[in-house]
């Protein structure tokens, strides 16, 4: 089928390639002309603007967004609302907040434009392996775009989760779980790396063997093994970990539903902690130990 792709970054660009290889006609747009040229090289039809993109689509149109959550998605959908026609479909494949997706679906419904929110997982490996897709929206909108969804996903790798907002909600929780898994792996490998009794453990080899039959085997573990083979001590990396919002939203959803989620919550807070190169919290802890027990402290060099 014909599909437009807006946003040709690391995921969107690879999705264009996978769709073209799957026999779909793709019209591609990005603010970067270089990204559009790369999509054209892959077999897509390039567009110079959103207006140009819509003009190259046959109704009923389908437009897939892979742009950053928040203002970029909001602005893009607002512009498309004035360009599309009743019966057209907009798919937000980014990591938007699920309540924003519910609102956008209602707003587009007023002008008879259909909306799907597609939680998209797969990262830079999706081109080869496929993207796990969690899609919320009406049955009619899902049925219209399902041929594209089926091409993007691996076998058994997509689901119609329910009404608008449910796709991004499920993807949000997916990412919250990811936070906890990553934190557990990181802590476990740190314990082994720091073990005084066994100072020369081969962490990369251990990660490899855990991938065969172990109950902790996973794709994340395979990626950990790859990273450790490239840099066994990870000395090239700074201990600074960003978050893209979904972990915060997952913790908020847990609070709103009175669900205890200590692992996900603490893994999010550990990411915050990683950004404190000179933590006031740790300096306060040292000061208190010194005050009540006379415990030794390490002083900074005088300026």
How would you describe the overall organization of this protein?
51% of the residues lie in helices and 13% in strands. The chain is α/β, with parallel strands linked by helices and 303 residues long. Strands 3-2-1-4-5-6-7-8 form an eight-stranded mixed beta sheet, sandwiched between helices. It starts with a strand and ends in a 10-residue tail after the last helix. The model has no long low-confidence stretch (mean pLDDT 94).
What can be said about this structure in brief?
The chain is α/β, with parallel strands linked by helices. The chain has 13 helices and eight strands. It has an eight-stranded mixed beta sheet with strand order 3-2-1-4-5-6-7-8, with helices on both faces.
Task: Set out the fold topology.
Layout: E1 2-6, H1 10-21, E2 25-29, H2 33-41, E3 45-46, H3 50-55, E4 62-65, H4 71-81, E5 89-92, H5 98-109, E6 114-121, H6 126-129, E7 132-137, H7 139-152, E8 158-162, H8 166-193, H9 203-210, H10 219-230, H11 246-256, H12 262-274, H13 280-293
Parallel strand pairs: 1-2, 1-4, 2-3, 4-5, 5-6, 7-8
Antiparallel strand pairs: 6-7
Helix pairs in contact: 5-8, 8-11, 8-12, 9-10
């Amino acid at each position: 089928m014909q599909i437009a792709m807006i946003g040709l970054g690391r995921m969107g660009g690879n999705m264009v390639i996978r769709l073209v290889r799957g026999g779909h006609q793709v019209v591609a747009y990005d603010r970067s002309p270089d990204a559009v040229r790369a999509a054209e090289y892959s077999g897509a039809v390039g567009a110079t603007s959103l207006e140009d993109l819509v003009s190259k689509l046959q109704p009923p149109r389908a437009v897939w967004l892979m742009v950053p959550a928040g203002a970029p998605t909001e602005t893009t959908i607002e512009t498309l609302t004035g360009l599309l026609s009743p019966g057209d479909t907009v798919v937000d494949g980014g990591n938007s907040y699920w309540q924003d997706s519910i609102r956008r679906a209602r707003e587009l419904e007023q002008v008879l434009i259909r909306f799907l929110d597609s939680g998209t997982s797969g990262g830079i490996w999706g081109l080869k392996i496929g993207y796990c897709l969690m899609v919320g929206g009406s049955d009619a909108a899902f049925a219209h775009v399902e041929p594209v969804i089926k091409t993007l996903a691996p076998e058994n790798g997509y689901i119609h989760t329910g009404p608008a907002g449910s796709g991004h909600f499920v993807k949000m929780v997916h990412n919250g779980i990811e936070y906890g898994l990553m934190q557990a792996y990181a802590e476990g490998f740190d314990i082994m790396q720091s073990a005084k009794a066994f100072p020369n453990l081969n962490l990369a080899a251990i990660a490899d063997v855990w991938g065969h039959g172990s109950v902790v085997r996973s794709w994340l573990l395979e990626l950990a093994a790859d990273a450790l083979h490239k840099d066994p001590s990870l000395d090239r990396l700074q201990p600074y970990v960003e978050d893209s919002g979904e972990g915060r939203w997952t913790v908020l959803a847990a609070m709103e539903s009175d669900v205890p989620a200590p692992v996900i919550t603490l893994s999010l807070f550990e990411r915050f902690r990683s950004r404190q190169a000179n933590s006031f919290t740790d300096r306060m802890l040292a000061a208190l130990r010194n005050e009540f027990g006379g415990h030794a402290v390490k002083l900074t060099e005088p300026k």
